[in-house]
Amino acid sequence: MLPRRLIDVLHRFNAAHPWDHNAHYHRWLLRQLPRRFGRALDVGCGSGDLARLLAGRGERVLGVDADPEILRRARELTDAAAPVTYTLASAPDGLPPGPYDVVTCVAVLHHLPFAETLTRLRRELAPGGTLVVVGCARAASPVDHALGLVALPLNLLTGWVKNRGRPTTHRPVSMTAPTREPELSFAGIVRQARRLLPGARLRRRLFWRYTLVWRAPGDPSGH
Fold first, then answer.
1. By C-alpha distance, which of 51, 33, 29 is closest to 41?
2. Are the C-beta atoms of residues 126 and 220 closer than 8 Å to each other?
């Protein structure tokens, strides 16, 4: 564990040089998806940053979130001509039914019942559809703690570079959503995910994240 005084210094630096750890993985996420697809669902869409990126490939994108204020900001930030619709809904029970060719879920699963939510997302995927998760896990193993230590200086450097070395008083809209500490460890996430999504690929990542990619069985063409 880091000394409390050092943790406080790091928090103050991060507050003055904020950057979105989730958006850092958006390019990686897009690489996991087909170049073109039909319907996409972004669960916990927040201010719509990822939904707008998905709209560059998809025929129709539905972003859902349980926070009406963040959805208002998402609508303000989205071009009226973009094929994106935002809906107020709570996961897993309130999600609009599919099927969807793509389902994305970024930094949301640790706010929700894990197994029940994965089961619902699996059910809403079309045959051959792709589920991509960028999630948060509780640090529990030596590997988790080692990755956290490696990420610390990189996190500071990235914040410094993205803010061009100058402190800022403005946080990105995407970083204004409520946060919650994850309860499940990465090992626990892997056990449940592989039981519910056979063949899912999971990896620990830098900046206190993990990723999950799963493709539903079946032919996406329906043949």
1. 51
2. yes
The mean of the pLDDT values for the chain is 86
Residue with tokens 């040089």: 17
Please classify residue 66 by burial: count the beta carbons closer than 10 Å to its beta carbon, then call 0-12 exposed, 13-18 middle and 19+ buried: middle
Contacts of 95 (CB under 8 A, 6+ apart): 41, 43, 64, 89, 120, 121, 124
The yes-or-no verdict on residue 8 having pLDDT over 80 is no
Sequence spans of domains, the chain: 1-218
- Give the pairing of strands 209-215 and 125-135: antiparallel
Comparing CA positions, the residue from 113, 80, 81 lying closest to residue 180 is 113
Structure tokens at 15: 């507050």
Q: What is the CATH number of domain 1-218?
A: 3.40.50.150
Q: What is the pLDDT of residues 16-29, one digit of tens each?
A: 666 577 888 999 99
pLDDT in tens, 148-181: 777 677 767 666 677 676 666 555 554 555 667 8
Burial class (CB in 10 A: 0-12, 13-18, 19+), 63: buried
What pLDDT, in 10s, does the model give residues 90-129?
999 999 998 999 999 999 999 999 999 999 999 999 999 9
Q: Is the dihedral of CA 188, 194, 196, 200 positive or negative?
A: positive
CA atoms lying within 13 Å on the CB side of residue 116? 10
